[in-house]
């Protein structure tokens, strides 16, 4: 059984007349009759009762008509979905999320992307900095992110700089330093610093905090690890600690950001989007276009 058999059968079953069905399909009537006979022989049942007054459906034909209509409709929908995916209007996009490091811009980007391509299913997958390239190589994500002054990638990957920004101090509105227009790193030496990290692992954020203070000869309290970005925000709101992050695109009622007084270039964070070279995905290309702004 082939799709043309079902199309021919539906045409005949709806017209209940071989001549009119043949005209609708733009085929010769003998050829149409032959296709219907092949379908009946293939299934092993009679689908149509033929008589001088026209054609009528058998019980088996009536059942097949409903099923054939559903099949042809699903085939048409599948073809349409494939065509949409080819131009990036539908399909799936897996994005490697870096939590704190992407929270400053990714919500805005995803909102804009969804507004333009509402039929694309976007999945955020939490992937650590050191695992981004392996996740891309394995096809677990279509686009990932890396942070550094520059980016050095092995052969087979492409990248674009997403943003270059100076991190700021995040703290509770009730914090004594919140009234300051800017804050020096030295003023944070005795503050409880917060970072998102799994037990036993040092994240890029924790490394950044330690290095930022160390190169300036500032001794600070060891950063306190929390399990998630949401936990960090909750603790900051409650006055249980502060952190240094890229300013977030969304606001929080009891949290403020204050710029750093320190002006050295090493404080500037460069964030890069990374993907596999030669990717033909139109969805990815559309996402990168939105990402670039």
What does this protein look like?
The structure is a single chain. Helix content is 38%, strand content 22%. By secondary structure, the chain is α+β, with helices and mostly antiparallel strands. It folds into 3 domains: 3-86, Winged helix-like DNA-binding domain superfamily/Winged helix DNA-binding domain (Arc Repressor Mutant, subunit A); 90-162 and 270-292, 3-Layer(aba) Sandwich (D-Maltodextrin-Binding Protein, domain 2); 168-266, Periplasmic binding protein-like II (D-Maltodextrin-Binding Protein, domain 2, 3-Layer(aba) Sandwich), CATH 3.40.190.10. It has a 3-stranded antiparallel β-sheet with strand order 5-12-6. Strands 10-7-11 form a 3-stranded antiparallel β-sheet, with helices on one face. Strand 1 (48-51) and strand 2 form a beta hairpin. The two termini are 50 Å apart. GO terms for molecular function: DNA binding; DNA-binding transcription factor activity. Residues 1-58 form the HTH lysR-type domain. This is HTH lysR-type domain-containing protein.
Give the strand order, joined by hyphens, for the main sheet.
5-12-6
Total discrete domains = 3
CATH first level of the largest domain: which class?
Answer: Alpha Beta
**What's the CATH topology name of the largest domain?**
D-Maltodextrin-Binding Protein, domain 2
Span between termini:
50 Å
Low-confidence stretches are none
Helix content: 25-40%
Mean pLDDT rating: 87
CATH superfamily of the largest domain: Periplasmic binding protein-like II
Give me the strand/helix succession.
HHHEEHEHEHEEEEHEHEEEH
Give the overall shape, derived from the CA principal axes: elongated
């Amino acid at each position: 059984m082939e799709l043309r058999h079902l199309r021919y059968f539906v045409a005949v079953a709806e017209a209940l007349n071989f001549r009119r069905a043949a005209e609708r399909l733009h085929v010769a009537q003998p050829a149409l009759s032959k296709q219907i006979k092949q379908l009946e022989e293939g299934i092993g049942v009679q689908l149509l009762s033929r008589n001088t007054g026209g054609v009528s459906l058998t019980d088996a034909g009536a059942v097949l008509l409903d099923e054939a209509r559903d099949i042809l409709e699903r085939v048409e929908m599948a073809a349409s979905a494939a065509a949409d995916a080819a131009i990036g209007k539908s399909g799936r996009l897996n994005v490697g999320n870096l939590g704190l490091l992407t929270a400053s811009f990714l919500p805005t980007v995803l909102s804009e992307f969804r507004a333009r391509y509402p039929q694309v299913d976007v999945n955020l997958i939490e992937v650590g900095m050191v695992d981004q390239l392996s996740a891309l190589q394995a096809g677990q994500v279509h686009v990932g992110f890396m942070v550094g002054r520059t980016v050095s990638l092995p052969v087979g990957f492409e990248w674009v700089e997403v943003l270059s920004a100076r991190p700021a101090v995040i703290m509770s509105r009730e914090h004594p330093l919140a009234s300051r227009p800017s804050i020096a790193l030295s003023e944070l030496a005795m503050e409880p610093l917060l970072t998102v990290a799994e037990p036993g692992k040092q994240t890029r954020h924790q490394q950044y905090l330690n290095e930022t203070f160390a190169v300036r000869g500032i001794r600070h309290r060891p950063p306190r690890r929390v399990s998630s970005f949401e936990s960090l925000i909750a603790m900051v709101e409650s006055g249980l600690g502060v952190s240094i992050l890229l300013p977030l695109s969304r606001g929080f009622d009891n949290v403020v950001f204050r710029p750093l007084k320190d002006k050295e270039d090493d404080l500037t964070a460069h964030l890069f989007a990374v993907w596999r070279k030669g990717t033909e995905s139109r969805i990815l290309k559309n996402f990168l276009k939105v990402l670039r702004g």
